Amino acid sequence: MNNRIKIALTVLGVIVIVFIMIFLETSHRARESYKEAETAYQQGDYDMAIVWYGTVIRFYTPGSKVVAKAKDKLFEIGEMLEKKGDYKKASEAYGEVVHGIYAVRSFYTPHEDWQDEAKKRVKVCKER
Fold it and tell me: Fewer CB within 10 Å, N or C, the chain?
């Protein structure tokens, strides 16, 4: 193998390793943020739970189950707050889904269906 091929393979290997490390770190941060969100949720601190669940969405990695769980919790909180008549806070919970997905889009937008549903619910809350 000539020297150029060795250098090219080395550079490619380093790039792959860096991407794997970034993926693993992002996944780890999502899981840690989810734990914080769950703690806040269980303590009834819905304001902080909304913030932490939104943070989880911002640590999106393809195939992440914890991101889907965070989205579900934000919808759950939003629905609960709507039933209590707190439409402003419900709108914030749904808004975290919308903004979180905007924050992670690149050449494609993941989970546009979640975003569309959240936008509809924000609109309903703001009309009340």
Answer: N
Angle between helices 46-58 and 65-84 (to 10 degrees): 150
Phi and psi angles of residue 70, each rounded to the nearest 5 degrees, phi first: -65, -40
Calculate mean pLDDT across residues 47-56. 97
What's the distance, CA 122 to chain centroid? 17
CA atoms of 66 and 87, how far apart (whole Å): 26
Rg (alpha carbons) of the chain, rounded to whole number: 19
Query: Within its chain, how far is the Cα of 104 from the centroid?
Result: 8
Query: Does the pTM exceed 0.85?
Result: yes
- Over residues 75-102, the pLDDT tens digits come to 999 999 999 999 999 999 999 999 999 9
With the C-alpha atoms ordered 25, 34, 125, 89, is the resulting torsion angle positive or negative?
negative
In contact, 26 and 62? CB cutoff 8 Å:
no
pLDDT at residue 53 in the model: 98
